[in-house]
Write a structure and sequence with these properties.
This protein is α+β, with helices and mostly antiparallel strands. It has a single domain, classed as 2-Layer Sandwich (NE0471 N-terminal domain-like). It has helices at residues 37-42, 47-50, 94-102, 104-118, and strands at residues 11-17, 22-27, 32-36, 68-74, 78-83, 92-93.
Length: 137
C-alpha cells in the first residue's frame, strides 16, 4: 500500500519550488496541488506541532518565510521535509499532502481564526521554550 489509506491517489511528481515557497505535488487522479511551505509547517503532523492528543496542539507562528531545505522519501508512503527553522520531525504521508492541497482554503481560514483567538499574527515570533537548549526543536 503506497498511501496510508487503501485506494488513495498516489503521487506522480513532487517538486520543491524555493522561490515561491511551495511544494508542488501531482497525483495519479489528475489533481495537482501547490502547497505553501508555511501551511505545511503550521500543520506538520509532528508531535511538536500536534501534541500527543487532542487539545495539545501548539499554535505555530513566525513561519511565513520558512523554506524546505531538504526533503527525504519515507518508504513508499510519505516524505519528510527539513524546514529552515530546524523542524524536521514531521512525516507527510501522500494522503496528508493530498488533504493539505485539497483543503488549503479551509485550513488557512482555521489557522487565521486560531491566530486571532490567541491574539497573535502569522509573523509573531514563536515563544522560547522553557528549558530548551539552543537549536533544539
Amino acid at each position: 500500500m503506497a498511501g496510508l489509506k487503501p485506494h488513495s491517489p498516489l503521487p506522480t511528481a513532487v517538486t520543491v519550488h524555493q522561490a515561491s515557497r511551495v511544494l508542488e505535488v501531482g497525483f495519479d487522479d489528475g489533481a495537482v496541488f501547490r502547497i505553501p511551505f508555511e501551511l505545511m509547517r503550521v500543520y506538520s503532523p509532528s508531535a511538536e506541532v500536534q501534541g500527543h492528543g487532542p487539545g495539545q496542539e501548539v499554535l505555530q507562528t513566525g513561519k511565513r518565510d520558512v523554506l524546505v531545505t531538504d526533503i527525504l522519501p519515507v518508504g513508499h508512503y510519505a516524505v519528510q521535509p527539513r524546514f529552515s527553522d530546524g523542524h524536521d520531525s514531521g512525516i507527510f504521508s501522500w494522503d496528508l499532502l493530498y488533504e493539505l492541497g485539497r483543503d488549503a482554503a479551509q485550513l488557512w481560514q482555521r489557522y487565521e481564526e486560531r491566530l486571532a483567538a490567541a491574539g497573535v499574527t502569522r509573523d509573531t515570533p514563536m515563544p522560547a521554550k522553557a528549558g530548551a537548549a539552543c537549536g533544539s526543536h
